[in-house]
Amino acid sequence: MLSTERFDNEYSPAKYKEILYSDGINKHPLKIYDPLGTINDFCDSLQSIWDDRVQAKLDEFKIFEFDGRGLLSGKRSRQDRDKIRLLAYCGYSKDGLSCGCAPLVIGNNDTCMSCSCLICKKCDCCFVNCPGYKSRLEIKKLNQKKIPYPIRKVNDRA
Ligand SMILES: [Zn+2]
Ligand SMILES: [Zn+2]
Asked: pTM of the entire structure?
């Protein structure tokens, strides 16, 4: 659909679900058991990136790769050495708490210069062990240093 010059405005990747799922519970695509919901996640991912396709400049990409965990990457041409992350979710977690912010979409979220992953707007994380993430945290800390309490005006002498 991306490669056609004038695409149908009615087109929506979510409509694949109507064909794939007849049970209405999105568990059995074409009656095949899919316990991890990979096909359902794939449809949701396609819809997310489709919704943001203009911002993401998706039409520049020619080669796509989806991994079952909801991560979509792409290349602009076969000559490109590295894949660029197009769609992801925030994988940050600490002490049993996770950020879980999703979807992160290229064009809407910044791309980390160190690891090429998308940066979560909520927690600034791209990849927990990334040096880029660590330096962003440092900068944030510096910016948040408390402004000294305003010095009280000495009462005007009467
Ligand atoms: Zn990074
Ligand atoms: Zn996050």
From this structure: 0.74
How many Å lie between the centroid of ligand 1 and the Cα of residue 115? 4
CA distance 127 to 117: 7
Q: pLDDT per residue over 77-136, tens digit each?
A: 999 888 889 999 998 988 888 998 988 999 899 999 998 899 999 999 998 999 999 999
28 DSSP assignment: -
What are the structural domain ranges in the chain?
Answer: 13-144
Q: Which ligand is nearest to the CA of 94?
A: 2
Cα 96 to averaged position of ligand 2 atoms, centre (Å): 14
Say how many Å lie between the CA of residue 93 and the centre of ligand 1. Answer: 15
3-state helix, strand, coil in the chain (%, to 5): 25, 15, 60
Say how many Å lie between the CA of residue 47 and the centre of ligand 1. 25
| Whole-number Å distance between alpha carbons of 157 and 12 | 74
Q: Which residue carries 């009462």 as its tokens?
A: 155
User: Measured in angstroms, how far is the CA atom of residue 71 from the centroid of ligand 1?
Assistant: 15
Say how many Å lie between the CA of residue 130 and the centre of ligand 1: 5
Distance of CA 93 to the CA centre of its chain: 16
Q: What is the DSSP letter of 151?
A: P
